[in-house]
Specification:
This is DUF1998 domain-containing protein. The structure is a single chain. With about 375 residues, the protein is of the alpha+beta class. It has 2 domains: about 80 residues, no CATH class; about 290 residues, no CATH class. The protein is built from 9 helices and 10 strands. The strands form 2 sheets. Strands 4, 5, 6, 7, 8, 9 and 10 form a 7-stranded antiparallel beta sheet that branches. Helix 6 crosses helix 8. The protein is globular and about 80 Å long.
């Protein structure tokens, strides 16, 4: 029976003398029985009593009547409701994505600058950086959008690995070995290998947004710490958190949610400008304060080059202005991020590179649009 906890007391369909199919209230001297409020997912299910509205317990997967804890030398008797992780409605893939420039220089900001310089020397048709426009126009990007530079890289590889799946229901209170959400990797049919991952590699152009770390540090710490120290501390913390802690949102991180939200807004604005929804990925380089947009297919002049082909930088400026709108204006006036502003499709949210963040980070977590908006027009 599904009832609302906040509404009036539930009607008792079964008489007090009839105990069929009822779970007795565990409170002492209470003659009531338990109803269940299903909520929107298993972790939110709660029991409440038909007699005493004060009894309101979270569902831990064990029947209050049938579950027998170990006592007086007798073994525990388990009686549980356990979600099936094979149910497609309750699972999502575990995906790791990485990027690397095809000349082998890597994924650091320095390496991407080096690759861009090589492209320029090789007369790349679509090569672009802020030096292309006038000093006055460059100042707009530097002062208004806190950008040191924006430049292109002709060949960037995106590598995606699907290594398992997780359930979006909670396992707390069961005898499952995993803590919190259930993660499963793919078993290998090869006896010499324990697990299997499925990889794809795609290539395309990239645009790199090199943000001013002095402004980022000022927004995050009010000038009390240097950017390098902030980034190093947050990366250490991020790699120590488990998935549940990140999903719960109480991490205390500030720089990472700022960069991630800025990246989401840039990604959305670039899709609106270019129409590359099916072929675009985005990454954050926390250590160096940069955001990278990457084509996942070589689409030539019809790709990201649409943003930078204009020699005056007006299309890029329009894209950044749209980024600001996404960060600043939310129809729901949310506190940090939601579906109406910077959330994106879960399957496309893999913001970190492997050399900085080793584990899986739940999609659309660690986002703060307000902090990101402060970076714009800060100077």
């Amino acid at each position: 029976m599904q009832e609302s906890i906040d509404g009036p007391g539930p009607s008792v369909v079964i008489s007090k003398e009839d105990t069929r199919d009822r779970i007795a209230c565990p409170e002492n001297n209470c003659s009531g029985h338990l109803h269940v409020n299903l909520g929107d997912r298993l972790a939110g299910v709660r029991f409440f009593c038909s007699e005493s509205r004060n009894h309101n317990d979270q569902f831990y997967g064990q029947c209050p009547t049938c579950h027998k804890p170990a006592a007086d030398g007798e073994e525990e008797v388990l009686s549980e409701m356990r979600p099936k992780t094979i149910d497609a409605k309750h699972t999502q893939p575990l995906i790791l994505e990485d990027i690397v420039s095809n000349d082998g220089t890597g994924t650091s900001l320095e390496a991407l600058y080096e690759a861009s310089e090589i492209n320029q020397a090789d007369d790349d048709t679509y090569h672009w950086n802020l030096d292309t426009i006038t000093p006055g126009s460059q100042a707009i990007f530097y002062d208004t959008f806190s950008l040191n530079d924006v430049f292109t890289v002709s060949d960037v590889s995106s590598v995606s690995a699907v290594y398992g799946y997780e359930s979006n229901v909670d396992s707390r209170g069961t005898d499952l070995e995993t803590h919190g959400r259930l993660a499963r990797s793919f078993s290998s049919s090869d006896s010499d290998r324990e697990r299997t991952a499925y990889l794809t590699r795609r290539e395309g152009r990239g645009i790199v947004f090199d943000l001013r770390t002095d402004v980022l540090a000022d927004v995050v710490s009010n000038g009390d710490a240097e950017y390098e120290a902030i980034a190093a501390r947050e990366l250490t913390q991020l790699n120590d958190f488990d998935t549940d802690e990140i999903a719960d949102g109480e991490t205390g991180l500030r720089l990472t949610p700022l960069l991630h939200a800025y990246q989401h807004a840039l990604y959305q604005a670039a899709i609106e400008e270019t129409g590359l929804e099916d072929f675009l990925a985005a990454k954050v380089l926390i250590e160096e304060g940069a955001i990278v947009l990457v084509e996942q297919r070589d689409v030539g002049a019809g790709g990201l080059s649409q943003i930078t082909m204009n020699k005056t930088g007006s299309v890029l400026l329009r894209t950044l202005q749209r980024t600001e709108e996404i960060l600043s204006d939310c129809s729901r006036d949310c506190t940090d991020a939601c579906l109406s502003c910077v959330f994106t499709d879960d399957a496309r949210c893999h913001p970190f590179v492997s050399r900085e963040v080793e584990g899986y980070v739940p999609a659309n977590s660690l986002l703060d649009r307000h902090l990101a908006a402060e970076v714009i027009r800060r100077a």
